[in-house]
């Protein structure tokens, strides 16, 4: 019997039991749709992370002192004070791969204006911080190197600070107080919104790092150094150069471990992308359980179908039907159920992805691979779970089958 006739017979058998066939497909439909949606969300999250981290400066480097904890072991407190102005000057003088360098010291507290107050953080930086973080001034101006040298009490504030302290009032020239220290507002930053980690990038106050060191921190060490490589291509070389310069500045021996950490923005992107990929694999694995359940449903229904059509099987074999024809007929029915469920699952998955993107505003990216993989898995599911019932049908004894009631 040729394949065309077998397909026609399989379609006729499915049409006789439309509702049962649809209910059998349901597990496959839900499984395929779930896999497509999960892959779209995972890929969208990965792309969103890359874009948002890159928006902060794709060439950024971060230099931090030795962490308080390493491998679960608490480090000496002095490890958090290993960055100084001497290190900053060494980098400014010798780091040829860096285009901009800014020290950073932070402080948290309440900022007050008139009768209003707001909990926030002040970042002590240099004017180069704007270029490194790709920030821009909306109104007013950035403080200058002269302000840094004189430890001037001036500040540039983000839009969240403006909204909570000033409302519709122009903040330029007004004086705010941070932990009782007065700062004159000389500039307002353009709005940036939330970053990948849900942090409000507009809830920020920038001030000269010398002012924050003397007035707020009462310290001489730096909490971190932020820099920008000349290009993405030299970012890794810049990391190695910074390590070499700081090891020399700290007078570390070849056998000594670094008492600082240097990371590039590309390293951060890679780390978070790997985490996102792991989460995507986990979600897809969970969603794939529906495909397994759907496959078990196909096997169950095919067993029922074989049992119901035992006399038909016996009759076909009695008039010359071969075992492989019977095998192929029932296998085709299982594959048709699986593939039809796969097509409907793809439609449902694409529709669900559109709903997730439109109404939940989640970043999603649909890739051709997700559809191809889901569809391929459907075909494999039909063959795998349909094979044994079909094999049972093809091995039936025609005499016994004809006597079956």
Mind sketching the topology for me?
Layout: H1 3-16, H2 18-55, E1 60-65, E2 69-70, E3 73-74, H3 85-94, E4 98-113, E5 116-125, H4 129-133, E6 137-140, H5 145-149, E7 154-157, H6 159-165, E8 175-178, E9 181-189, E10 205-208, H7 209-217, E11 224-229, H8 235-249, E12 260-264, H9 265-308, H10 310-318, H11 323-359, H12 368-394, H13 398-403
Parallel strand pairs: 5-10, 7-9
Antiparallel strand pairs: 1-11, 1-12, 2-3, 4-5, 4-8, 4-11, 6-9, 7-10, 8-9
List unreliable stretches of 5+ residues. Answer: 68-78
Topology order in helix (H) and strand (E) letters = HHEEEHEEHEHEHEEEHEHEHHHHH
Number of domains: 2
Class by SSE composition: alpha+beta
Through-space gap between termini: 27 Å
Multimer state = single chain
Number of helices: 13
Q: How many β-strand runs?
A: 12
The profile of the biggest β sheet is: 6 strands, mixed, barrel
Q: How would the global form be characterised?
A: elongated
What share of residues is helical?
Answer: 55-70%
Mean pLDDT: 81
């Amino acid at each position: 019997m040729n394949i065309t006739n077998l397909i026609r017979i399989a379609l006729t058998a499915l049409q006789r039991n439309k509702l049962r066939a649809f209910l059998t497909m349901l597990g496959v439909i839900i499984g395929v749709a779930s896999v497509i949606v999960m892959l779209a969300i995972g890929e969208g999250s990965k792309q969103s992370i890359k874009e948002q981290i890159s928006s902060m400066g794709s060439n950024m480097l971060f230099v931090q002192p030795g962490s308080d904890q390493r491998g679960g072991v608490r480090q000496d407190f002095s490890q958090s004070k290993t960055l100084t102005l001497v290190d900053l000057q060494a980098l400014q003088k010798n780091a040829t791969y860096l285009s901009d360098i800014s020290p950073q010291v932070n402080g948290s507290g309440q900022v007050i204006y008139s009768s209003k107050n707001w909990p926030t953080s002040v970042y002590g930086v240099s004017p180069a911080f704007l270029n490194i973080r790709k920030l821009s001034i909306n109104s007013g101006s950035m403080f200058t190197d002269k302000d840094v040298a004189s430890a001037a009490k001036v500040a540039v504030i983000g839009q969240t600070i403006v909204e909570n302290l000033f409302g519709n009032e122009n903040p330029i020239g007004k004086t705010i107080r941070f932990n009782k220290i007065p700062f004159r507002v000389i500039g307002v930053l353009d709005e940036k919104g939330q970053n990948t980690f849900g942090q409000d990038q507009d809830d920020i106050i920038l001030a000269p790092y010398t002012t924050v060191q003397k007035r707020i921190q009462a310290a001489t060490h730096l909490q971190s150094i932020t820099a920008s490589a000349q290009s993405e291509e030299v970012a890794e070389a810049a990391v190695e150069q910074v390590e070499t310069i700081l090891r020399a500045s700290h007078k570390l021996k070849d056998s000594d471990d670094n008492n600082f950490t240097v990371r590039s923005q590309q390293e951060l992107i890679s780390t978070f992308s790997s985490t996102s990929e792991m989460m995507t694999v986990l979600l897809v694995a969970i969603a794939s359980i529906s495909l397994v359940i759907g496959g078990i449903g196909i096997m169950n229904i095919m067993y029922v179908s074989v049992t119901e059509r035992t006399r038909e099987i016996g009759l076909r074999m009695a008039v010359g039907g071969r075992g492989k024809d019977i095998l192929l007929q029932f296998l085709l029915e299982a594959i048709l159920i699986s593939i039809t469920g796969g097509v409907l699952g793809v439609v449902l998955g694409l529709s669900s992805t559109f709903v997730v993107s439109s109404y939940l505003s989640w970043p999603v990216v649909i890739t051709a691979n997700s559809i191809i993989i889901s569809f391929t898995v459907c075909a494999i599911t039909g063959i795998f779970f349909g094979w044994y019932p079909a094999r049972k049908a093809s091995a039936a004894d025609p005499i016994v089958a004809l006597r079956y009631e």
